[in-house]
Every structure is written in structure tokens, then in C-alpha cells.
Design goal:
- The chain is mainly alpha-helical and 453 residues long.
- It has a single domain (15-449), classed as Up-down Bundle (Amino acid/polyamine transporter I).
- 78% of the residues lie in helices and 0% in strands.
- α3 packs across α10 and α6 crosses α13 (294-305).
- The chain is globular and about 65 Å long.
- The chain binds tryptophan.
């Protein structure tokens, strides 16, 4: 079978467009909403350091592998795997990477959209001046009122799913590319403004201490697993999102450099988000381990007090929505592209089907914050279960299979050709990480958790 030279779904217009789109996918709720609360729940510094270690040891190598596979296959992950298995004379079982990726993407988006819905609702609250001079108790109540009202949650969840499907239906170039070009820099700027506030209102030193002084007594197997899951989640790895974005990348771009740029931007935003949020937590005497509500309980306090808070707060939540939007697209794109390729559906119809299925599953998450709070498995709500299953299990397993596939199954000549790396030393380091460090490390983390259970 010959190698397709271009994807039927389109191609990024420039290398920068790919970097921005991949950064758009990586930077999202995972950085601004999830990273701070996970660091807060897992003891701060030690979690942050382990997370950064996983980004370097697992994230970077796997990300390069994913882009490489996508660019070689030029189709949805499911069909890319099919093609690569034929070319490389590999067993069809590797095709699981594509299938489990599509499933993971839909499952993640189903709850991601609900949280993005919270952000949408805060755009409105902030814009309407509801955060002005708000105190801790009021901020807490505002959040509680939101999540205990399933109707509100469903409405916002529906709006966000609709927004996502509109862009996906329009395709690669006219939607995603245009949006990320302006939104990513703006988000960065607003984070800096927030940090400016946090720097001048107390608690900053304590926050730095919390985030960067490792207290390894807080670390157990589950924390390590969560840090690993978060590294994959944050970089959008292990389910084919970056693979499909790679399939729209033209043949001349350097995979190594682009990947590094995305990883740096992604971890940078996560750290900045922590530095913006924890000072507010400390200066108001709040809990670090508040879970999923952390940023919604703390940021309104800052916006409520700062001058220009109405404007900055509203802009911030708008940016958060945009950051989530550019991520959510990549979660569903593999499923939609597959339906277009294999079922011959028009993009619009494929988007509607996938969007509806995802929306439906999302209702489980909506209920897990109110009526369904007590429907628990292993002490976890539906939302917690989904999050644990996808981030901590499916994504790292996908990453493991991707590392093994590119590191051991594909012929080195194919890998070398696709990567076209000039620097042999960096190439060897990458291959070593991908072949040995990533798979062994991943298996060790899994084994240590299983042992505990
Ligand atoms: N990385 C995004 C974030 O941090 C979420 C995301 C988008 C994602 N695409 C993904 C996570 C693919 C895992 C896999 O918010």
C-alpha cells in the first residue's frame, strides 16, 4: 500500500499553524483548572516535580512518536494504525491504539465539556458584575449553586458541545487555525496580569514554597500515577489527538523542534496558573486540597477585589473557555475523521453523531455533582471514575503502546525517514527514551499501583 501524500481532511497552512493548534490542544482546562487542584490535593512541590519529570521522560518522546505516526499515516488514528501495521508487517492488535484512543477522546470530552460549561457560566457571572467585592463564603456559594443545579449544568454543557461541534464540522483550516493564532497569546497575557495581582496581594512566597519545595513524604503510588496521568492529559497524549494533528502536518516540518515548543508552552502555562492561584489560596486562608472547585472558589476573590476586575475577570473566563474550546476539538476529531473516512459520512453529519453521543455521556457527569453524588464505585463518583479511568489508565496505556510500536515494531528506516532529524545525538537520546525509559517507567508505575491494591 502506498503512503498517502496528504490527508483528505486538509493540511495546516504553516508549521506555526501546527504548533499553535497542537498548543491549543495541549493548553486547556488541564493546565488552568486541573493542574492547580491536583497539585493542591497531592502535596504541591513533590507532585509538580514528578509531573515535570514525566513530561520530559514520557511526554516528549511519546509526543514525537505520535506526530511521526500521524504524519506517516495521514488519516484518522484508527486507519493510520491499520496502514502502518500493513506497511510494517505488524500484528493487527496494534490497531487497538486507534480504537481505545477514539473511546478515550469521547469519554474525556464528555466531562471536559461540563467543566468548560462552568467556565462559560462564570463569563456571565463576571460580566454581570456578580463577582464584585465577593467574599469567600459568597464565592463558595456561587459555585455550589451552579453545580447543584443540573438544569443549568446541562444548558452550559449543551452550549459548549455545540460550539465544539460547529468548529469540528467546519474542518481543519477555517476553524481551528484562525482561532488559536490570537487566543493563545491573549491567554498568556491575562495569566501574567493575574500573577501581577497575586504578587502584590500576599501569599506569593508561600505559594512558591508550596509549589516548588518538594515534600516527598506526601508521595505514594497513587500520587505518582496521578502525576503521570496528568502529564499525558496535559500534553493531549495517548489517544491520537496529537497523532491526527500530525497527520495534517506537511512533510517538511521538523517534528523534534515543534514538539519541544508545544511541551514548553504547555508546562509553562500550568506553572503560571499555579503561581496565579495559590497566592490567592494562601492569602485568604483557603484549603489547597479543595478538588475540582479550586479555581472557581479562588479566582473570583481576586477579580472581585482588583481594580478593573470586572473587565479582567470576564476576559479571563472567556479565555478559559477558548482554551478549553481549542482542546475539545482535538478530543473529538479522531472519531469524526474516522466516520468520514470509513462510513463516507459528510463532516457535518459525522460531527452531529459524535457530538450527540458525547453529550449524552456528559449527563452522567452533570448528575455526579448533585443528584448522583452518592452513586459511587470505589468511593468515586461518575465524574471521578471517568477522570481516573481515562487519565490514569487509558492515556498512559495508549502512550505505552505508542512507545512500543514506534520504538520496537516499526522499522528503524521508516522511523528515521519520517523524523528526518539532523542531529544524531538527539535522535539517539530520543530513541533510547522511547524504547527503554518510557515503557519501563510506565510499567513500573502501573505495577506499583497494582501492588498497593
Ligand atoms: N490537553 C488538554 C488540556 O490540558 C485536554 C486534551 C485535549 C486532551 N486533547 C486531549 C487530553 C487528548 C488527553 C488527550 O486541557
Amino acid at each position: 500500500m502506498s503512503i498517502p501524500t496528504a490527508s483528505i481532511h486538509g493540511e495546516w497552512s504553516t508549521r506555526l499553524a501546527f504548533i499553535l493548534a497542537a498548543t491549543g490542544s495541549a493548553v486547556g482546562l488541564g493546565n488552568i483548572w486541573k493542574f492547580p487542584y491536583m497539585a493542591g490535593e497531592n502535596g504541591g512541590g513533590a507532585f509538580v516535580i514528578i509531573y515535570l519529570g514525566f513530561i520530559i521522560l514520557f511526554g516528549l518522546p511519546v509526543m514525537m512518536a505520535e506526530v511521526l505516526m500521524g504524519r506517516r499515516g495521514r488519516q484518522s488514528p484508527i486507519n493510520t494504525l491499520k496502514l502502518l501495521c500493513q506497511q510494517e508487517q505488524a500484528r493487527a492488535i496494534w490497531g487497538l491504539i486507534g480504537w481505545s484512543g477514539v473511546l478515550a477522546g469521547v469519554l474525556i470530552l464528555s466531562y471536559y465539556s461540563v467543566i468548560a460549561g462552568w467556565s462559560l457560566s462564570y463569563v456571565l457571572e463576571s460580566g454581570a458584575g456578580q463577582l464584585k467585592n465577593i467574599d469567600q463564603r459568597e464565592a463558595g456559594n456561587l459555585f455550589k449553586q451552579l453545580i447543584s443545579d443540573p438544569v443549568k449544568l446541562v444548558v452550559w454543557h449543551s452550549i459548549f458541545m455545540f460550539m465544539t461541534m460547529v468548529v469540528v464540522a467546519r474542518g481543519v483550516n477555517s476553524g481551528i487555525e484562525v482561532a488559536v493564532r490570537y487566543l493563545m497569546p491573549a491567554l498568556f497575557l491575562l495569566l501574567l496580569i493575574l500573577i501581577g495581582y497575586s504578587l502584590t496581594h500576599g501569599g506569593f512566597a508561600q505559594a512558591v514554597d508550596f509549589m516548588f519545595t518538594p515534600d516527598f513524604s506526601k508521595i505514594n503510588q497513587d500520587v505518582v500515577l496521578s502525576a503521570m496521568g496528568q502529564a499525558f492529559f496535559s500534553l493531549s497524549l495517548g489517544m491520537g489527538a496529537i497523532m491526527i494533528y500530525g497527520s495534517y502536518l506537511n512533510k517538511t516540518a521538523s517534528i523534534g523542534k515543534t514538539t519541544l515548543a508545544v511541551a514548553i508552552a504547555d508546562s509553562g502555562v500550568a506553572i503560571l496558573a499555579g503561581l496565579a492561584i495559590f497566592p490567592i489560596v494562601f492569602s485568604n486562608g483557603l484549603e489547597t486540597a479543595q478538588g475540582a472547585g479550586l479555581i472557581f472558589n479562588t479566582l473570583p476573590l481576586a477579580f472581585g477585589q482588583m481594580s478593573g476586575g470586572l473587565l479582567f475577570g470576564t476576559l479571563f473566563f472567556i479565555m478559559l473557555v477558548f482554551a478549553a474550546w481549542t482542546s475539545s476539538i482535538s478530543l473529538i476529531e479522531p472519531a469524526v475523521a474516522w466516520l468520514v473516512e470509513n462510513r463516507g459520512l459528510a463532516r457535518v453529519r459525522a460531527s452531529i453523531y459524535c457530538g450527540f453521543a458525547t453529550w449524552l455521556i456528559g449527563l452522567g457527569t452533570v448528575l455526579s455533582f448533585n443528584y448522583g453524588q452518592n452513586w459511587q464505585i470505589f468511593g468515586k463518583t461518575f465524574f471521578d471514575c471517568l477522570d481516573y479511568l481515562t487519565s490514569n489508565i487509558m492515556l498512559p496505556l495508549g502512550g505505552l503502546m505508542i512507545a512500543l510500536f514506534v520504538g520496537w515494531v516499526m522499522k528503524e528506516t521508516s522511523v528515521k525517514e519520517e523524523l528526518a532529524m539532523q542531529n544524531q545525538v538527539i535522535y539517539s537520546i530520543w530513541l533510547f527514551l522511547l524504547r527503554f525509559v518510557t515503557p519501563l517507567g510506565l510499567v513500573l508505575v502501573f505495577l506499583s499501583v497494582i501492588e498497593v491494591i
